[in-house]
Amino acid sequence: MFKIVRKEVLSPTLKLFDIEAPKVAKKCQAGQFIILRIDEKGERIPLTIADFDREKGTITLIFAEVGKTTQQLGQLEAGDSILDFVGPLGRASEIEKYGRVVCIGAGVGIAPVFPITRALKEAGNEVIGIAGARSKDLLFWTDEFKAQCDEFHVCTDDGTAGVKGNVTEILKKIIEEKGQVDYVICIGPIPAMKYTSLLTKPYGIKTFVSLNSIMVDGTGMCGACRVTVGDEMKFSCVDGPEFDGHLVDFDEQMRRAQIFKDEEARALAKGSCGGGGCGCH
Fold it and tell me: Which of 180, 121, 110 is nearest to 150 (CA)?
């Protein structure tokens, strides 16, 4: 069992957990993820590591309550425990001294891009950070993110915080004004990663994205997380989660993300009514 030692409510649908997992904390690197299962009847879900403390032996996770399992997870409190917590999984981020780098966190993607930003800064890069969300209420960790950057931008779709607009618009302005960007990492919803990659491709800017695909086993055996990268089939769990954004088939990823949409809706409906004879499931 893995104990939740701290819980923070970032917004009505965003939760932060510090989880006691000393063996994972000892070995994990920026860009990696874990797979957890709440109890014996629960599904396995992947969550990218938002932070880690090797001395305390804790892993920080930030997640949005978008389905039955994440809603159930969000109801847990500090002191509760999770049955399974497997990791670190996936390949760590490629941390080098590239020069001028732009780190983009869109929505919940702010969480996993944070340790990558920190590692890139520690490697001696000039770091420009961009945090974006639909509205001010969905922004979090902006102070922590900013502290790792030489330059920092905030944008929201509705203009309630920072500049009104999206992360791609901010990135385009940076490229046009700076003239030289050597590396971009973007983590967030598929459209944000897709359009960031489309923007940087004509400039020849090395661009990586992190895919939080549907996973089952997390070891490359089931094939559920497959993604087309260039002319090859890859698996997010063992070949990723980070891939060259210029080669990812994002349209395929969006289609695959909808595979279990109907099943998830039925699971949510069943959970909300307690499974009684209401006819909604």
Answer: 121
Contact 5, 18 (CB under 8 A): yes
Contact 236, 215 (CB under 8 A): yes
Residues 31 and 162 in one domain: no
Q: What pLDDT, in 10s, does the model give residues 41-90? A: 888 888 999 999 999 999 999 998 888 888 999 999 999 999 999 999 99
Which tokens sit at 150?
């030489």
- Eight-class DSSP state of 248: B
| Rg over CA atoms, the chain | 19
Task: Name which of 81, 91, 92, 83 is nearest 115 in CA terms.
Answer: 92
How far is it, in rounded angstroms, from Cα 234 to Cα 227? 5
Written as six digits, the tokens of 231 are 């002319």
Same-domain pairing of 75 and 106? no
Same domain, 79 and 188: no
